[in-house]
Design a protein that fits this description.
D-Maltodextrin-Binding Protein, domain 2; globular; Dipeptide-binding Protein, domain 1
């Protein structure tokens, strides 16, 4: 821990004279092969069976690994499972594990460890917020999560032998293998990890990924060492340091001084950098299969139970102005829920237009002319992100001006925000949903069907449910898309969500960084990164 504190002091020193962001002479020698880039919030958890936010996943995917992972072609690729077979019409998956793959404590990974991991993830005492999302197709998981099972055993997961894992699901689902890329199935060693409780001690944070945890100082820094016995070969860098830097100006200044190698940018910083000869060549854009939206909770704010009220809110928000003016035109306006990157999207969906006059009439027809009689409304959003704050303020301002609604704003610390959202306590919120796999099911069925595990707004439409349920288990891709298209149009017209924009990340990357692997989901684990001297 003392060593970590010293390293934190080192990376916090401001150096000058770097020139074009090249790797400067750091405050200490011997750091030339250490890859440093910030995490913009304190990690919400270091437990893969608990994690649910992209910032933390970007970190822990370097520590842990599962059966499959995303490849640079945006398709599931072998990880700890070398091969797999699909049997019984698409309801049985048999995974053949790599022999000799090790945990970072030196022990070999076995099929029993995967069974333990999945049963731990579905343990009601652990209360994983993502188990229902990604594992409920497995036979026995729904019963276990609903406390209808009297044992910890999940019959759909069986260790056939030391290197063979079998998973049975309830129905054929074209996207099931994609779900297994999510961290909830990152394997953990059963002798090190508590079955009932979230990891809290760094000694528990043992994975089978390319880097092992050296130290974790909350609110300060996470330091990872290259795992020399990684089954894919030792990483080419010695260390990976993730200092926690919440302030975007501080992050940018540290990049310019050569202290960090990559920096994610807020939108207000992009335009000046694009016209700056010193930095423009280090600026990179990455479209992501994600959309930012406004959510309307039908139970927490009773007027939202009225479809006309929701439609009025949607039609009173000028998202074109938000995207083109406030966000500098970097992002694309979202006129669908399912984002680009998913086959066949975006499309000409039946999105509600911006029409303040029609919106005001709709609100009046619902009994709230000029906003009169509507209870005060608070819009919640994630703190410490200027872009999010800009959009939330714009939405609140337009609802006040165009509809006369009394809308207040409240920013919440990220983990607190996630906890309230998990319990469906946010009446009105601005948030992102990013694809965990490139299938419309991840956006429509999961987020908006009546029983969808990520339905945080209490939306329910039987016609929408029927279309999604049919599409989820249909094997023909053209028929699936047709069904999802119909369902999406229904949801857009009902307006439990108001899509605002599709995500595009902007980053400065130091030219000394080579070998980054990319997918639509973000930077892949840093197994091939090299740092030029």
């Amino acid at each position: 821990m003392k060593r970590a504190a010293i390293l934190l002091l080192i990376v916090s020193c401001v150096l000058v004279g770097c020139g074009k962001g090249n790797f400067s002479q750091r405050a200490t020698a011997g750091k030339e092969n250490t890859f440093v880039y910030p995490i913009v919030v304190n990690p919400t958890t270091m437990d893969p069976q608990i994690v649910q936010d992209g910032d933390t996943i970007d970190l822990i995917q370097n520590i842990y690994e599962g059966l499959v992972e995303w490849g640079e072609d945006n398709k599931p690729a072998p990880a700890l499972a070398e091969t797999w077979d699909v049997k019984d019409g698409g309801t049985t998956y048999v995974f053949h594990l790599r022999k000799g793959a090790k945990f970072q404590n030196g022990r070999e990974v076995t099929a029993d460890d995967f069974k333990y991991t999945i049963e731990r993830a579905c343990n009601p005492k652990l209360a994983s917020p993502t188990a229902a999302d990604y594992l409920s197709d497995i036979v026995g998981v729904k019963e276990r999560l609903a406390l209808h099972s009297t044992t910890t055993n999940i019959p759909g997961v069986q260790a056939i032998d030391k290197y063979t894992l079998q998973i049975k699901i309830d129905k054929p689902r074209a996207y099931f293998i994609d779900k297994l890329t999510y961290p909830i199935t990152y394997v953990v060693p059963k002798e090190a990890v508590d079955f009932d409780h979230e990891m809290s001690d760094p000694k528990q944070m043992i994975g089978a990924g390319p880097f092992k945890l050296e130290s974790y100082l909350k609110d300060q820094i996470v330091i990872l060492d290259a795992f020399k016995d990684y089954h894919g070969g030792a990483p080419k860098i010695d260390k990976l340091e993730r200092p926690v830097i919440t302030d975007p100006t501080t992050r940018l200044n540290k990049f310019k001084s050569g202290e960090i190698d990559i920096v994610p940018l807020e939108r207000q910083d992009v335009k000046p950098l694009q016209s700056d000869a010193e930095w423009k060549d280090q600026l990179h854009f990455f479209p992501r299969p994600a959309f930012w939206y406004v959510g309307l909770n039908l139970k927490q704010y009773p007027p939202f139970a009225n479809r006309d009220v929701r439609r009025a809110v949607a039609m009173a928000i000028d998202k074109h102005k938000i995207v083109s003016e406030l966000l500098g035109g970097i992002n694309d306006e979202a006129n669908s829920i399912v984002p680009p990157g998913v086959d066949g999207w975006p499309r000409q969906a039946q999105v509600l237009p911006y029409d303040p006059a029609a919106a005001a009439k709709l609100l009046a027809s619902a009994g709230y002319a000029g906003g009169k009689g509507m209870p005060p409304l608070t819009m919640f959003y994630r703190a410490d992100r200027p872009d999010i704050d800009l959009v939330a303020n714009a939405v609140a301002t337009e609802l006040r001006q165009n509809l006369g609604m009394d809308v207040k704003l409240q920013a919440l610390e990220w983990r607190n925000y996630l906890d309230k959202n998990n319990h469906k306590l946010l009446p009105f919120f601005h948030m992102r949903w990013a694809a965990d796999y490139l299938d419309p099911q991840d956006f429509l069925s999961l987020m908006l069907t009546t029983t969808g595990a990520e339905n945080k707004v209490y939306y329910s439409n039987p016609q929408f449910d029927a279309l999604c349920n049919q599409a989820d288990t249909t094997q023909d891709p053209d028929q699936r898309k047709k069904l999802y298209d119909q369902a999406e149009d229904i949801a857009l017209q009902d307006a439990p969500f108001i899509p605002i924009y599709f995500q595009k990340d902007a980053e400065l990357i130091n030219p000394r960084v080579k070998g980054l692997r990319e997918s639509l989901f973000g930077h892949l684990p840093h197994t091939t990164v090299t740092l030029s001297r």
